[in-house]
Amino acid sequence: MTGSRAALRLWAIVPAAGRGERFTADQPKQYAPLLGAPMLEWTLRRLLAEARIEAIVVVVAPQDERWPPLAQRLGSTRLLTAEGGADRQTSVLNGLKRLASLAQPQDWVLVHDAARPCLTAPELGNLIDALVPGTSGAMLGAPLVDTLKREEDGMSAATVERQGLWRALTPQAFAYAALMEGLEDAARAGATVTDEAQAMERRGVRAQLVAGSAFNIKITQAADLLAAARILQSMGATAMRIGQGFDVHAFGAGNFVTLGGVRILHSNGVVAHSDGDVVIHALCDALLGALARGDIGQHFPDTDPRFRGADSRVFLRDVAGMVRSAGLQLVNADITVIAEAPRITAHRAAIAANLAADLGVDVQRINIKATTTERLGFIGRAEGLAAQAVVLLDELRA
């Protein structure tokens, strides 16, 4: 932040510990599949794309086994975790307590529903821009446009004046200390509040209404997922994308090589900054090429000590997240290992399984094959090995 707000920081809390009682599924609503990824992943990627947010506290249920692998796939150091409570307001309180050692009293805290995966960048930006000195808080909302009816015994009994009525959306933002006091006061009084603005209204604090997008829908019923899928598709690419990648490494000291995350015994190792997995490196380059996002060296440079000896499957999971965030999915990947040795016939299934797991696709979408250079060139002289990959991406489907 700049100017008079330079000293104030911005944090976010996403309560994701509920089960969504109105949502008929065999898993918590926030993990319902949406275009090839859990709904919660879409929600968090929307917030992670806003650089002004210092960190995001994701409040999850105790022993939530789905959250750790999702957090690992997102791979952001800006994600923090807190344990959820019996209701939303308790979960948000727990999220605020997680920030106790990080946030200052006047820092802003955004609270966003896990079930709102279609938050747009412009409306989030407008909300943050509204947090100026003298503002007690701000929230996204939408004026009601439909005629409202009061029901009695299943019948329309009266028309309700809609002038001045808004639908409450999220995120909603208030100062850290004020929001903590508002929620704690509601808890002491035994008052149930359905959003943060209601807790603050009890204390006479009013939030600035910021017009939100009609796309910022809340997933309540399973049928809402189809609408969300269409919205997300409209935000992303709709055309097929093709990418190709190539990687090569020289043999060096060692007694194994890693291909597609599978360690294969060999008379040599490879010379590399990371684990030298030519299969994954070529595949990452192909995916990045299809996304028009540069190459693997730009995202995971060999000059960065963090990637020394790194497991290349981490790279692949990160790139897979970029694919999903672009509204795309892998149709298929065709990968060729080029080497005189080692032979990979016995390892093809394991390599394909690893790649499919990291990409979140069926293993039938991955093809692994091998060839030699008929003893020609440096590969033919067994001085190294290479791999090439071709991928086809298409828009995500519901």
Question: Can you describe this structure in just a few lines?
Answer:
With 398 residues, the protein is α/β, with parallel strands linked by helices.
Describe the structure.
Helices cover 29% and strands 28% of the residues. By secondary structure, the chain is α/β, with parallel strands linked by helices. It has a seven-stranded mixed sheet, sandwiched between helices. The chain has a five-stranded mixed sheet with strand order 15-12-18-16-17. Strand 16, helix 11 (348-359) and strand 17 (366-371) form a beta-alpha-beta unit.
Distance between the termini: 38 Å
If strands are numbered along the chain, what order do they take across the biggest sheet? 5-4-1-6-10-7-11
Main beta-sheet annotation: 7 strands, mixed
Overall pLDDT level: 91
- Tertiary shape: elongated
- Radius of gyration equals 25 Å
The number of domains is 2
Set down the secondary structure blueprint:
Blueprint: E1 10-16, E2 33-34, E3 37-38, H1 39-48, E4 53-60, H2 67-74, E5 79-83, H3 88-98, E6 108-111, H4 121-129, E7 137-143, E8 148-152, E9 155-160, E10 166-175, H5 176-188, H6 196-201, E11 208-211, H7 224-235, E12 241-252, E13 256-259, E14 262-265, E15 269-270, H8 278-291, H9 296-299, H10 312-325, E16 328-338, H11 348-359, E17 366-371, H12 377-380, E18 384-395
Parallel strand pairs: 1-4, 1-6, 4-5, 7-11, 16-17
Antiparallel strand pairs: 2-3, 6-10, 7-10, 8-9, 12-15, 12-18, 13-14, 16-18
List keywords for this structure.
398 residues, Spore Coat Polysaccharide Biosynthesis Protein SpsA, Chain A, 60s Ribosomal Protein L30, Chain: A, five-stranded mixed sheet, elongated
